Amino acid sequence: MYTLESTETFEQEIKKSRFQAVSGPVATEAAARDFIETCSEHSAGHNCWAWRIGSIYRFSDDGEPSGTAGRPILQAIDGQSLDHVAVVVSRWFGGILLGSGGLIRAYGGTAATCLRAAQKILVVPRVPAQVRVGFADLALVKARLLAVPNLRIEEETFTAEGAELALALPAHEIAEVSRLVADLTSGRSMLLTST
């Protein structure tokens, strides 16, 4: 899964109606609601939207015929394997009716084009972990941990014997990092996870 690195906009005209899409990353449901409120154009006739955060999603047709706007926007998000993303598509009516099929293509297409233009970053599921390590092993352990892709040292707390490292560890690397820590310290330190 991927998410967006930053906010992206795209605008197009379809049969004299103007469609403007704004997409961006959102971390929580509250952030998604704030994004929709902030990015909705109050001069537009319709501000249709969708967002997905993991298995939770919402969408709105905002007065358009049911199923012609919000669901196609959500399908654009899902079709590009995106997560933690919100999209608002605003429409200014140009006087020509598009019909249900035309609206589905217009809203879904505008959202999809906007999302394709956005910079994406890989979403890496991380789990919290801890390592207690003595001063003799600290420099080597830290250097090797930092070489693990997508691993972050969140906090380093010094003790009388060494340090405690709080890690954000990619879930698929738990066994490998556990083995690495044990090997580097000849079994003096172990990786502790909450899973």
From TrEMBL:
Family to which this protein belongs: Belongs to the IMPACT family.
Molecular function as annotated in GO: guanyl ribonucleotide binding; ribonucleoside triphosphate phosphatase activity
Name the record gives this protein: Putative YigZ family protein
Gene3D superfamilies per the UniProt record, alphabetical: 3.30.70.240, Impact, N-terminal domain
Organism for this UniProt entry: Ciceribacter lividus
Residue ranges of domain UPF0029 in the record: 131-188
GO cellular component: a single term: cytoplasm
Single GO BP term: regulation of translational initiation
Pfam families to which the protein is assigned, alphabetical: DUF1949, Impact_N
Limits of the Impact N-terminal domain: 15-115
